[in-house]
Design goal:
The longest helix has 23 residues. About 50% of the residues lie in helices and about 10% in strands. It has a 6-stranded parallel β-sheet with strand order 1-8-5-4-2-3, with helices on both faces. A two-stranded antiparallel ribbon has the order 6-7. Helix 7 runs antiparallel to helix 8. With about 375 residues, it is of the alpha/beta class. The chain folds into 2 domains: about 170 residues, Rossmann fold (3-Layer(aba) Sandwich), CATH 3.40.50; about 200 residues, Dehydroquinate synthase-like, alpha domain. It starts with 10 loop residues before the first strand and ends with a helix. The protein binds nicotinamide-adenine-dinucleotide and fe (ii) ion (FE2). The site of fe (ii) ion (FE2) has 6 residues, from helix 7 and helix 11.
């Protein structure tokens, strides 16, 4: 056993209507000027109205920048930062999914450091913590509210790049399931599968440890029992609560362990073909798991049990097969595409995908079964 550690957000407030705590959080940071970073979908869903009104009623001046695009590119983040630096804020609030939260985390760090986004993408260190941050997730997916990561798309390289630094860890989180009841079914499905992928990958990862084991198994149980209900009956608050908690535990898993080959193979699908992060992970998950199961059957049995599958009397190999079958079934029920055909990705694209994925050694190195370029090619080939 080697040393392991868990970095976490400073304070997490959770439960229905916990958004009401936003004034207390602002007061704790002595904030009289607050910047909210969000996106158009979240803004149109009316999710910024309540926190903004609460803050203003408490005498706080609020600026809203809600132009974050889904899965933002470098240039788009730079534009948001240019608007953010016009004034001095004591608190940066990210309200939305991973896209808005990742941008809020980066902007907060850029506001307090003499470094550019391009330099950060080239692995420049972040010297100081940024302006204090509060994250309010409205999807149950990335877990970005508790990770030290922000993901940016670099269009010229057709790749998504992760900036990873403890300085990106948010100071505070509000986890209010009422904010996710209006999340459309397709996004509920894809973001929820992203969260499930985090938990499963971090459990199997070579960086797995007692912290990630506990968090991952709980995340898997919560998500497996509630994702279908959240998909079919968006207003089910208990299901939304399970999903938000599960996604956050998945994010904590990322902070202490690491995702593996599913995320590595998903990166070029997002970077070049602009397939949504959750969708690419969901499509890849059962195929990569089939590859990973060889030699790791006992861990697959643990996950199958956490998913509520009746595998106690099966051999480890049979339990692993049952777990993989259930992932295919989950994708079918959630109407996730079974392959990449609708994006017109063909054999001609195969080498670009393989080269793109092989570059993501940060994650591939943690895969429980070594994955060569030949293996990567074989997995993508099954999806064409
Ligand atoms: N930082 C991390 O640790 C981490 C981990 C995994 C993924 N990511 C990144 O996060 C991004 C994806 O985030 P995401 O999957 O949460 O999607 P997203 O933030 O791009 O949001 C998807 C869509 O959902 C809409 N939306 C969000 N909440 C809503 C609500 N409650 N009601 C109605 N519409 C709503 C948004 O407007 C948007 O159009 C990617 O860039 C991915 O690479 C980051
Ligand atoms: Fe992810």
């Amino acid at each position: 056993m080697t040393t392991y550690s868990l970095l976490n957000a400073g304070r997490i407030v959770a439960g229905p209507d916990s958004i009401e705590s936003i004034t207390g959080v602002a007061a704790d940071f002595g904030a009289s000027k607050v910047l909210i970073i969000s996106d158009q979908g979240v803004s149109r869903a009316g999710l910024i109205d309540r926190p903004k009104a609460l803050l203003e009623a408490a005498g706080v001046t609020v600026t809203v920048l809600d132009e974050t695009p889904p899965e933002p590119e470098v240039g788009q983040v730079e534009v948001i930062f240019a608007a953010a630096r016009q004034q001095q804020y004591q608190l940066v609030v990210g309200i939305g999914g991973g896209s808005a939260m990742d941008v809020a985390k980066i902007v907060a760090v850029l506001l307090n450091n003499d470094v550019s986004l391009r330099e950060l993408l080239d692995k420049a260190p972040i010297a100081r913590r940024g302006t204090p941050t509060l994250m309010v997730p409205t999807t149950a997916g990335t877990g970005s509210e508790v990770t030290p990561n922000s993901i940016v798309l670099v269009p010229e390289d057709e790749l998504k790049v992760g900036i990873v630094s403890p300085m990106l860890m948010p100071d505070c989180v509000i986890l209010d399931p009422k904010l996710s009841v209006g999340l459309p079914p397709a996004i509920t499905a894809s973001t929820g599968m992203d969260a499930l992928t985090h938990a499963i990958e971090c459990y199997m990862s070579k960086k797995g440890n007692p912290f990630s084991e506990m968090l991952a198994l709980k995340a898997i149980t919560l998500i497996a029992r509630s994702i279908r209900r959240a998909f079919t009956t968006g207003g089910d608050l208990d299901a939304r609560h399970d999903m938000l908690l599960g996604a956050m535990y998945g994010g904590m898993c990322i902070a202490t362990s690491s995702t593996t080959a599913v995320h590595a193979l998903a990166y070029p699908l997002g970077g070049k073909y602009r397939i949504a992060h959750g969708v690419s992970n969901a499509i890849l998950l059962p195929f990569v798991m089939r590859f990973n199961s060889v030699g790791n059957e006992e861990k697959f049995r643990d996950v199958a049990l956490a998913m509520g599958l009746d595998v106690a009397t099966l051999s480890a190999g049979q339990a692993a097969d049952a777990m993989i079958d259930s992932l295919f079934g989950l994708n079918r029920d959630l109407e996730i595409p079974a392959d990449l055909k609708r994006w017109n990705i063909t054999a001609a694209d195969l080498e670009t995908l393989v080269e793109g994925a092989a570059k993501v050694t940060r994650l591939l190195d943690n895969n429980p079964r070594p994955m060569s370029k030949t293996d990567i090619r074989a997995i993508y080939s099954q999806l064409l």
